Amino acid sequence: MVKKDPSPSKVNCEVKSRTEVQLPDTPATPVVNPNLSGAFIKVPLVLAETTLQVVVEADIPLDPPACEIKRVLKDVFLTQCKLVPVGPFEEINESGGFYTSEGAKLFVEGYIRKNIEYAPKGCNSALRTLTAKVPFSGFADLSGNLMNLPIFGFGDQRRAQFLDPKHGESPRLDKYFFQNSVIYNEQPFCELISAEFFELDFSPHSFDSHESKGSNNGSFNKLREKIVTDLTLKVLQVQQIPLNVNGGGAAAKGHEDDC
Prior knowledge:
Layout: E1 40-85, E2 89-91, E3 98-101, E4 104-120, E5 128-141, E6 151-153, E7 156-163, E8 171-181, E9 189-202, E10 220-242, H1 250-258
Antiparallel strand pairs: 1-4, 1-10, 2-3, 3-6, 4-5, 7-8, 9-10
């Protein structure tokens, strides 16, 4: 038995609601440390902003085969972005193991995510979509291109040995004194800014070449892509920076001294 829909005139279209009441509010006075003379903040500091050119070539299989590529959308995902200092290192004002590095290599790894829309062979075929991940990896030399220098702390390990009391010409192999110190660093990290793509897509060979001679109705089951990507990113490290009256920090003061 089929139940008939109620009459539109009898349907209740009202929903539950309530009217909000305005709450009283008054400005609050911020609490400021009265003894604060030299303030320090810990913030992400931009070490470099650079554009890397990624060049990759990939073969993407198509199933079912395509006769025409309609649209290709792309995004970039970074799975690794690590800064490795290579020196020269300069100690920071007798800080006890903290150094700045004027040279660094940036290791980058990730993939280009492509969403491909294509038409299979046939005059009345539905459009197909395919998602492909094209991996890439490489490194960039940031030496001489750093806006601010990264800071790294190095630990120390020492070992003391003893002489054999019965044989003063021989060391003891069963007695040692060890001392070590460990410094934990802020890991530099990256942020994506933009990506610009230039690519050439084509079929390396026709899938139905014997049927497509002299016509544009052939199909192909492989798409070859040559991609050039200009990838712009920032390299940052969380550092402790002093504030002054003018709102600048240690990095700004260092640039003023250079001038």
